[in-house]
Specification:
The protein is of the alpha/beta class. The protein has helices spanning 13-24, 31-40, 44-54, 61-73, 90-102, 117-125, 167-190, 203-215, and strands at 2-6, 27-30, 81-84, 109-114, 127-129, 138-140, 194-198. The chain has a 5-stranded parallel sheet, with helices on both faces. Strand 5 (127-129) and strand 6 form a beta hairpin.
Length: 222
């Protein structure tokens, strides 16, 4: 099984990728993880990426493509995997298609988790966390509120919200996501790979929806 998970920020891609890997013996490949691995290993791509990471800047698309290609060129390249967070753009998808073709690896499916913008805003804008090193407890104003509003249950520190989780920032991130996905969806649909799965609901419910989509296509096994 070789999968790509698509979905807006906050759609639960990381959670579902972890479940898919644990229950189906797949390797979870997140761009953040392989980026850190490349930097730690001081690979050529890692050395090119390190200045961007240290400066808190986005790593350019072409360099991300090179890092993914570098990972799949290794002798221990994954044969069964879930891609989480890559590709994000049509250019990245085309580059990844080429990498897989060179390694004689065919994708099984591309799963698109569909979640409404308002649900994403509610999920992300409600997230708060403890800034204290060694604690880092996380909360949500609706689904997991602290006992005292704005205060960590564990250590009593004032909670903080990531800049990325402010309402205006979330909406801007969604605009970028929709622009990119508008190109990715037809790319994978044309290849017969796209499966759309509702991403709202309980974690297990979403997982079962993914598995159902993976095992059935037009009445035949996927």
């Amino acid at each position: 099984m070789r999968l790509i998970l698509l979905g807006p920020p906050g759609s639960g891609k990381g959670t579902q990728a972890a479940l898919l890997c644990r229950r189906n013996r797949l390797e979870h490949i997140g761009t953040g993880d392989i980026l850190r691995q490349a930097i730690t290993a001081r690979s050529p791509c890692g050395e090119r990426a390190q200045p961007f990471v240290e400066a808190g800047k986005l790593v350019p698309d072409d360099l991300v493509n090179d890092i993914v290609a570098e990972r799949f060129a290794r002798e221990d390249r994954p044969e069964r995997f879930v891609m989480d967070g890559y590709p994000r753009t049509l250019a990245q998808a085309a580059a990844f298609d080429q990498v897989l073709h060179q390694r004689f690896l065919n994708l099984t499916s591309v799963v698109l988790l569909t979640v409404s913008d308002e649900e994403i805003v509610a999920r992300l804008a409600g997230r708060w966390s403890c800034p204290k090193p060694g604690c880092k407890a996380t909360y949500h104003t609706t689904s997991n509120p602290p006992r005292v509003p704005g205060v960590c249950d564990v250590c009593g520190k004032r909670l903080m919200q990531r800049d990325d989780d402010h309402v205006d920032t979330v909406r801007r991130r969604l605009i970028v996501y929709h622009k990119n996905t508008a190109e990715l969806v037809p790319h994978y649909r044309a290849q017969g790979l796209l499966r759309e799965v509702p991403g709202e609901g309980e974690i297990e419910q979403v997982y079962q929806g993914i598995m159902k989509a993976l095992t059935t296509q037009a009445g035949r096994p996927c």
